[in-house]
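Record Secreted protein, 222 aa.
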Amino acid sequence: MSTLMIILLIVAVVVLAAVAVAVLNRRQQGAGGRRGLKRRFGPEYDRAVARHDGDTKAAERDLGERVKRHGSLRTRALDPAAREQYTARWTVVQERFVDSPRDAVAEADRLIAELAGARGFPDAGHYEDQIDALSVHHAHHVHGYRKVHRASLGATAPGTADGDRTGADTEEMRAALVEARALFEALVAAQHADTDADTTRTGRHDTVKRSTGIAPKGVQHG
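=>
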């Protein structure tokens, strides 16, 4: 074998090795990025995949863009008086649910949007942007806000008077209010909103049961 052939073979081996390393690194980076997104977004990751009809790459691009736009957002703390006012207003929402569930979920929707704006998230006039930002910082709780928002739209749409099956029923509204409370509590907490302030499921259900008189399905109370 000539010297030229040996050199060409060596070059070919080096090129193939470099390509193999690059492919391996790309796969590892992709897997690491996926694991990082799953860890950061939790159930929100699965919702994004479902929204993109199972296309994980499209879902990950969506979530990655959210992190780019909102990951560096720094929230503003609430002063004690403001926290007390928001907490009192939420209590009124829960009490109102007994007599007027539709009005209660509509007010809960407005209250969370206002509170998120007060904490430094995009304001209530930009719902989609606000929900994306909240999903980056409160991925485990944001879906409750979505449910309240949807229930609120159904409650206020024409032709959705109480008893009209075209609107959200009382159980759906109650479930939305129960789930949304977790985000409310995380936002109203004294600490910064960059990490979720988790509350126990039982505690949330008990609180809403006391104020609404409706026990969530599948939850037994002694």
